[in-house]
Amino acid sequence: MKIIFIADFFVNEILGGGELNNQELIELLREREHKVTQVKSALATPDFIKTNSDSFFIIANFVMLSEDCKRVLADKNYLIYEHDHKYLPHRNPARCKEFKCPEQHIINRDFYKSAKAVLCQSQFHSDIVNKNLNTDNIVNLGGNLWSLDSLSKMRTIASKEKQNKCSILDSNIPHKNTIGAIEHCNSKDYEYELIKSNSYYEFLEKLGANEKFCFFPKTPETLSRVVVEARMMNMSILINRLIGAASEPWFSLKGNELIDVIEHKRKEIPEKIECLL
Question: Nearest Cα to 2, choosing from 44, 41, 58?
Answer without folding.
Answer: 58
